[in-house]
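Student: Please help interpret what follows.
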Amino acid sequence: MLTYDLKKAPGLPLYESLYRHIREDIRSGRLRPGEKLPSKRSLAVHLEVSRVTVESAYDQLAAEGYISAQQRRGYFVEEVSTRPTSPPAPPPPEPEAPAGVDLTGGGGGDFPFSVWSRLQRGVMLDYGPQLLRRMPNQGLLSLRQAIAGHLAAFRGMAVDPADILIGAGTDFLYNLLIQLLGREKCYGVEDPGYGKIWKIYRAGGARCVPVSMDRQGADPAALGPAQVLHITPSHHFPTGRVMPLDRRLELLRWAAESDRWIIEDDYDSEFRFHARPLPAMHTLDRAGQVIYMNTFSKTLAPSIRIGYMVLPRPLMEQFRRRLGFYSCTVPSFEQYTLERFLSQGHFEKHIDRMRRSYKSRRNRLLDLLQTSPIRNKIAISEEDAGLHFLVRVDTALDDQALADRWAAAGIWVRSLSSYFHGPVPESARHTLVVNYDRLTDRDLQELARRLPALEQEERHDQ
């Protein structure tokens, strides 16, 4: 007779618990194919449950093919694939974060939780069931109006909210652009540059070419067959260069002369420490060839998957005609909350606070490096904007060995050369990209403890 303790699974109906016990016995081979099960009445009496409980469990097992009913004979176990009675091996443990200080970036920290949660509560109370309605495919109008107001105040851009498209992060928007502009076009990507952009374009079926950089940014002489140019003129990653006006105008002429497109990725332009950000390239565009793109992932948190782009009017009309079937990918709850965060002035205050916080972190990190035992071996550059800077190291090691040496000391960094798709110029070698966007006080203390190990390694090599 089958004996089970059906009370060991609290929250489950008794028939569900019985069903699972019998199913496990069949799967493990404890109940063999062809073996007859107890009658519903006798098993109910034995387990002290109702007959309906046993009947429901048997019906479920029969429906899934574990047992079969034979008229006037009862229920019999069917042939099913069995598995060993020993428990399965536990899954491998999640990899732990490496010990030490991570200077590879990633964002996070200093999120305005109290303000954000208060706004969320207000949105819930004010909108209620309305939050369940479908959003316009370009995003909530009031949020697009708030974004247009922000761009006018901080980037000098006169933007019609009707030309703004909101999406769940820039990854989604890049894929929309591939469909809108055409994957048959050739996409030029800065080299060095943010590697994920290259991967997204390639995964979308577009042809990509690297566009080399000079001191002024993307080099017009290196555009080659590119028909779409993806650039970060306000603060290039990873070199930190800011594109001057003459170069911007030169690239705008390139775009206007042959129906080409420029995607202006305004990557972390909000974080400039000695002056206001330069006006967006979009403000100089007279031919309507610039697509402006930005995200709140860097200014708020990576998990806030809200990005947006401003399309030239003819391109927006094409989007509505050809791709208007796409639904907006950002939930209404987050859109209403962000709209209030922007329109009520919280975003401006948050950026000011973050700018002061990041400037303080940067200054403390610079001071730590410039007074460390390796100070005579390094040269720091491009530290006046953004959330990273470059450290050139006087060393005979190749770049991978250099990054490995810092990792051995518990300091995780990436080399500048690792961001190249094409040949790496000599001027970019022996240089590390140091991100400090998620650096904490504890990290700074840990860094001070670990930096001397680098100097000891240098002595060992000599």
The chain has three domains: 6-77, 101-107+350-461, 113-345.
